[in-house]
Each structure stands twice: as structure tokens, then as C-alpha cells.
Amino acid sequence: MTSLERYMNSQEYGVHWPEILLNKAISAGAQAVEIYQSSSLEKPIIFEGNRLKQAETTQAEGVALRLWRDGRPGLAVGYGPIEPHVLVEKALAISVLNEPETPRLATGGQKDFGSVGAPMSVETLAEKGREAIDLIRDRFPEAICEASLSCDVEQVRLLTSTGLDYRSKDTTLNGSISAEVVDGEDLLSVGDGDTNRGSLDMVRVADSIIKRLSWAQKTVKPLSGQVPVIFTAGAANILWETLMAALNGKRVLEGTSPWAERWGNRVISEAITLYQDPAVGPYSCPFDDEGLLTQQMTFVEKGVLKRWFSDLAVGQASKDRKGFGLGSSGNGVRPGLGSYPTPGLINLLVGPGDLSFEQLIAQHSEAIVVDQVMGEGGDITGDISINLELGYRVSHGKIVGRVKDTMVSGNAYVALENAIALGNDLEWSGSTCTPSIAVNGLSVTG
User: Fold this and answer.
1) How far apart are CA 318 and CA 110, in angstroms?
2) Which of these, 78, 91, 111, 267, has the minimum number of CB atoms within 10 Å of its CB?
3) Which residues of 267-285 are buried (b: 16+ CB within 10 A; e: fewer)?
4) Residues 167 and 236 in one domain
């Protein structure tokens, strides 16, 4: 091992490496510098064929250097031990290829936002996985279960030449199970999961899978035409993804959002309120990837459009436009270390209704329930066309069985304008906390 390698592996180097990198960039002529450092530790537990297959630990470290020299931005990324001058030279080489722009860096002091979440041992994760699989197989002995449970620890540090130095650490627990039941040529697959900080409720996950396997025991003829469609909490995100795109400040400035000129107007049903609260749930976050403090915001209140979300670039370009506020909303998000920040939500919360899922079902003499879909939902246009991987038919206020070879199509904006009711069964689906929802305006083909 060379003297450089020994130094790079030393504790002193690990603690001060971001400062060393920043100083190297400034010495090389950069007028503005930003360093985003991320490290993760994952402890996954994998079950296959109802049995524990593996338990291992994976660790990754990476850093993104963004700088401006002569106003030209450059971005370079490194993983693991890497010499500072190598990253600086890469970023400077890239900056020569870009057009000049005004550097966009947040200002602030030094703050460690501490740690959120609590770790869980691999032994406990394995025990929770076994317990959930046993519950499912007690009810459905023929089920073949796969499961993945993990404890993920991520640390982030953001350092800039403007004096900002923010740090945070979060521990997130993830657990998911899928159960397959084969009957001749018919394959039924049901999945569910839980993401949390501090605890995992895998019993709830198992109970959910058991209930849905029970609903799907009988195959019935699907409905056709424009009928009420009920999205479970796990499937409702198909609709909200379209609205996230419409609320993106970048799309508003570009004029590609259909809501770009509708600020202050009712855009969807009065039953719907959409907001962000970065202090709650497993997707909480004290600051965004540009060093702006995140904030609670209401985007749509009782169907009325209130504001957009933006990063520094969009915020600076839209200070005088209605619905933006002043500057960034603290929603600068990096899709990956090698990407520039872009507007993105920390989380999205959908205000719940008053009805349980069972009460939502009971309102309908005939309806289709969307539970799991194949493929993705709609884009900014709102047009959706989804095949049901798992769906049910409602008759006389009850689920009477599973429907197969069924498609739901239409437009998400139209459906959410014609929302019938929302449930009170809030669940996290990715970074969206949503209840079930019943809508009109979609077509069913089966």
C-alpha cells in the first residue's frame, strides 16, 4: 500500500475529505463549489421458496463534486477512495463543454440535523419474515412466499463554498412479501410491504395478503364500460403520479403542465387535498439536495390549486409568478449522484376521507377494484391504460371474486375530477401516503 493509499484510508482523511476536495477545487480556479457526500449501509434478509436464503451486508460511499469556473458548471462523481485532484480535473473538463450560468448555491451555517429512525438486527428481521410467511401458509399452505427485509442506514453531508455544511442520518426499515398460488395454468400473485422507522408491522402485511388471497379465490366475469373504479391504497399512486408531474414547477415554466395557467382554480374534486410534510413518515428529510430547508406545503386544498414545488433554478426563474412563493420551495432533488438537482417531492400526502375500505366498497352495487397492475401509470397527459394483475369485482356492495384479462383506461385528471369518495385507510406507497379512492370516468374492458 502506498503512502497515499494509507492516508486515504485513515480516519483523518475520512473526516476531512470533503474539505480537502473543496479547497482543491477552489485552488484550481473554481469560483463556486458544492460537495454532496452520501454513504449507505444495507442489511438485507432474503427469503425464497418460503425459506431464508441469505443475510448479508452491503456498503457504498459516493461523492458528487459540482463547481463553476468562469461561470461554467461541471459535475464529477466518485465512489469509494479517490484522489481529490482526479475529481476536480474531471469536473473542470466537463465545465469547459457547458454554457456559462449564474452559480446557484444555498447559504447557511454548520448544522448536524442528527439521526432519525432506529436500527433492527438481522436476527429480528429474519424472525419477522418467518412469522409473516408462517401466518400466510397457515391459511394457504400451497402458497410459495418470497420476502425481502432490510435495515438501511444513510448518511448525507452537503458542503459548499458559501459556508453551508449540513449533515443528516436516517435509518429506514423495509419489508415486503409476495405470495404465489398456482392452480393448473392459473398463477395468482399477491404482494404487500411496510416501510417505517423504528418498527416493521409484518403481521399487518401478512394479514393484508391473506385477505386479498381470500378475495381472489373465485374468478368471476369482469364488468365492461364506464363503471365506478376503486383503487386500493396500494394502487392509488397510479393516479397521484400524474398530479406530481402537473405540480412540478419546471413543467409549469415550460408550459407542459396542463395546470400551468390554473393557479387558484379548482382542478380536481373538492374531496381531495394534497400536501407535503417533510417531518413525517419514513420519507422525512430536513434539507433538500441543494441545502434548502424542506417545508410543509399544501399544493391542492379541497380541489383548488395553491402552489407548485421547485428547486433553486426554477425558483430563481419564477419569483414573480403566482403559486411559486419566493425562490426555491426546498425541493431540489438529485435523481442520482451523477445528476444535477431537479424539482422533486420529499413526500406527498393525500388527505383521507371518512370511510373504511369496506364502507367504500359497500357504496357500490357494481364496481371494479384495482389492486395490482402490470406496467406503469399515466404521464403528464394523464392518459392511463393499465392491465390488472390483480383486481376484483364488486356486486351489491361486496367483493365477489377476482377478475382476469381486464384493462382500465381513461384519464387521471378526469377520474380525479369525478372522485366519488376517499377511504381512511392511509398507507405509504413509495413516498406517497394515500388512502383508497373510488372514481368515475374510467373505462373497463374485460
Assistant:
1) 28
2) 111
3) bbbeebbbbbbbeebbbbb
4) no
User: How many Å is the maximal CA-CA distance in the chain?
Assistant: 77
Contact 252, 261 (CB under 8 A): no
CATH code, domain with 15: 3.30.2290.10
- Please give the chain's pLDDT, 446 residues, in tens: 444 344 344 444 455 889 999 999 999 999 999 999 999 999 899 999 999 997 778 888 999 999 999 999 999 999 988 889 999 999 999 999 999 999 989 988 999 999 999 999 999 999 999 999 999 999 999 999 999 999 999 999 999 999 999 999 999 999 999 999 998 778 999 999 999 998 999 999 999 999 999 999 999 999 889 999 999 999 999 999 999 999 999 999 999 999 999 999 999 999 999 999 999 999 999 999 999 999 999 999 999 999 999 999 998 888 778 778 767 899 999 999 999 999 999 999 999 999 999 999 999 999 999 999 986 677 899 999 999 999 999 999 999 999 999 999 999 999 999 999 999 999 999 899 999 999 999 999 98
Total number of domains in the chain? 2
The set of cell numbers assigned to 342 is: 431537479
112 and 187 fall within a common domain? yes
Contact 117, 197 (CB under 8 A): yes
Distance of CA 332 to CAs 76, 126, 201, 335, 341, Å? 18, 36, 32, 10, 5
CA distance 75 to 90: 8
189 backbone φψ class: left, alpha, beta (φ>0; ψ -120 to 50): beta
